[in-house]
Amino acid sequence: MTVLEQPGAYRPAPPPAWQPRTDPAPLLPDPEPYRLLGTGADLDPELLGTLYGHLVRGRRYNRQATALTKQGRLAVYPSSTGQEACEVAAALVLEERDWLFPSYRDTLAAVARGMDPAEALGLLRGDWHTGYDPHEHRVAPLSTPLATHLPHAVGLAHAARLKGDDVVALAMVGDGGTSEGDFHEALNFAAVWRTPTVFLVQNNGFAISVPLAKQTAAPSLAHKAVGYGIPGRLVDGNDVVAVHRVLSEAVERARRGEGPTLVEAVTYRLDAHTNADDATRYRDDAEVETWREHDPVALLEREMTARGLLDEAGKARAHEEAEEMAARLRARMNEDPVLDPMALFDHVYAEKTAQLREQAERLRAELEAEESAEDGQEGDER
């Protein structure tokens, strides 16, 4: 008697709603990155204007945040310059009730979702646990460990579906994150449970200094979806309209209860990995300049100009709004925050553990002792 012949043995069986797939073609990702700009496709002028405004502000945001690191106002900043199309599209395709799960490079997506630009940088400044309230705009904490937020996105989406909530979770990750076990676990559970989750991989060519060719032998990262039995889409990550359309379709599909989608956006990080990285050690200037010719801001600007939807006055207005945002951000970041050391123990658990309470009391005693000593010293000086 074999194991499967024993009474009560596990026998793989499809879920009740499963139907045999007669044509496997829909599971195969696009053979070439999907594009819309420059193809003559019919595009919504209002959407183009909205996307353009966000892209211009996003580019200025990246430059301002990078400058703040040089001024010592930020500890580190992982710039998304060159990847703004992915950041903006990911934020704008979601409804208010949906959740965004960003990685450490996705502060711009959080800002495009409506978050205060200064609050989005709180974690990178070292001010607070997350720097913002995740529930206010439904943006999960920026995830520095690679891909650990992906299972969280699946869990939230699964819980929402069990509760009957009409919620979609969109999780962002870089190509390096696809090499992590959390990526596999998240996609596997999402596929099995058919969760309303969209995975956006921003393939910018490098996991810090490791090129994609040394991470995978797959034809594309979108092909990885095939192994999980879910659709994979390949899109030009610098074509903001194409990214917006592909993600919109994936979000709508998830909301209809048809399960997750893996989207690979082929893009490029024009700046170094962070301000602490020397990108010249693993790529040359010629490669960077080649990608500058495919700049997402310039691509959309040329398209709108050619369609008669953007003139010099329109460009000037967009850049003025971006400069105003940058000025407000500088002013906020130049203010020294007033921090309460006791807040270190807040928002760790719903109820403090015994260990946290003990640590909090120890710190409180130390702070009171320091304050008493300072008061005594001031009294002696008087």
Notes on the structure:
The protein has 382 residues and is α/β, with parallel strands linked by helices. It folds into 2 domains: 290 residues, Rossmann fold, CATH 3.40.50.970; 41 residues. 45% of the residues lie in helices and 8% in strands. It has 14 helices and 7 strands. Strands 1-2-3-7-6 form a 5-stranded parallel sheet, with helices on both faces. β4 and β5 form a beta hairpin. α1 runs parallel beside α13. The longest helix is centred in the last third of the chain and has 28 residues. The chain is globular, with a radius of gyration of 24 Å. The protein starts with 44 loop residues before the first helix and ends with a helix. About 4% of the residues have low confidence. It comes from Streptomyces macrosporus. Pfam families: E1_dh (PF00676).
SSE layout and pairings?
Layout: H1 45-70, H2 84-92, E1 99-101, H3 107-112, H4 117-120, H5 122-125, H6 134-137, H7 149-163, E2 169-174, H8 181-193, E3 197-203, E4 206-207, E5 210-211, H9 224-228, E6 232-236, H10 240-255, E7 261-266, H11 285-292, H12 296-306, H13 312-333, H14 354-381
Parallel strand pairs: 1-2, 2-3, 3-7, 6-7
Antiparallel strand pairs: 4-5
